[in-house]
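Morning run. Coffee first, then this:
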Amino acid sequence: MGCRILACALERPENRLVAAVDGDPSLVGRDAGELLGRAALGVRIVSELPRSGRRGRVALVCTTSSLEVAAPLLIACAGAGFAVVTTCEELCFPWATRPRLAERIDRAFCAAGTACLGTGVNPGFLMDYLPAVLSSVCRRVKKVTVRRIQDASPRRVPFQEKIGVGLTPAAFRRRVREKTIGHVGLPESVHLIAHALALHPDAVRETVKPVIAEATVTTGYRPVAPGQVRGVEQIARGIVNRRERIRLHFRAAVGEPSPEDVVEIDGDPPVVSRIPGGVHGDLATAAIAVNAIPAVLRAEPGLRTMLDTPVPSGRGV
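And here it is:
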């Protein structure tokens, strides 16, 4: 994903790569262009974060889904003078799920006078920001339901591994208990929608189940036999006064026959948005991260969410 985002960023003439950082010793010293399969860019990968030395520089951080793991690097970016756009899923709306870490990161960026934004296609857009925007035309909102149904066959291999493609059901359940499998960020998306609607959930509940192949599936990175796992199904629910007010249904599996992204708002007036075929997660995440660069440079200092930054719109061609 980091390579996709870098390639996308370099398509924009206003962007100039000034540094590339990675902790993998096998990458240190190589020209960043090598990782993209293109000519040398004149920027060699280093292991230590440089100081920016000037305003207008943004670090694109694509390292981990875990905010606990990402926090030291994000705080270091603030100390070095960078604004940040990151694909860390737990940073989408961490104020309810990781409040202490959120406060530490916010203080660091406020002190630095720069902004930090967690975004992506999901979380960051399809299952949280988009429903919040669509609710703008509603006088009242009773319930928000979002369904993201994906055919994971064209997605990158790490994504297919993350949703358990090819595992046995027993291995899948074990990895769920270990919290090493499945989609990250669904509870944060619930809280972002709730914040936008001025709701205060009593509870956010999440379930994670395997999608089992009924026939052999060969469209993913590896064949999946009948009885094996071909993906994941997760549901997160926001409960307010014992009523389900927010429901997020995420299903990603190889060989999924009818992918789509759907937002349904039970409101006055009701709103339904459907994207047949769904949005390609890898391409869209790279695009929104790059499109967010101007937005994060214009944002107020501190830890920001998609709700309080300028719209990271795409570019015409």
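The mean pLDDT is 95. Good start to the day.
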